[in-house]
Amino acid sequence: MDADTDQPQPPAPRPDARVEITYCTQCRWLLRATWLASELLTTFGTDLGEVALVPGTGGVFRVRLGDDVVWDRAVQGGFPELADLKRVVRDRVAPGRSLGHTDRAAAARAASSEG
Fold first, then answer.
1. Buried (b) or exposed (e) across 27-65, using 16+ Cβ within 10 A?
2. What is the pLDDT of residue 36?
3. Structural domains of the chain in order of their starting residue, each with its CATH number
4. pTM, full prediction
5. What would the pLDDT profile of 86-112 be if each residue is shown by its tens digit?
6. Which of 24, 38, 53, 113 is most buried, by the most CB atoms less than 10 A from its CB?
């Protein structure tokens, strides 16, 4: 509660939970980068401290979470699947959060590959 207004204050964003999406401007991947950013912000809200879009060149598409690269097109090829990216972010910034249908779909895939 804020002593001056007696209103509850929203949780402070976590500065250590910074997502950085570097995208190739030559390849025109800005829309893909903004879509991923908006999906992460919609899902995680104030659990994230920041989502930054960084223009690059040369076919780059890289997603960092804090100091760690969690997706790099040059290494993994292609682009990250949204569900996979959300799970990686969730596991780091909000481990108790359910991703609803994303978690259920992953569990179903895992069960079908085991049997």
1. eebeebbeebbebbeebbeebbeebeeeebeeebbbbbb
2. 98
3. 18-114 (3.40.30.10)
4. 0.78
5. 999 999 999 888 888 666 666 566 667
6. 24
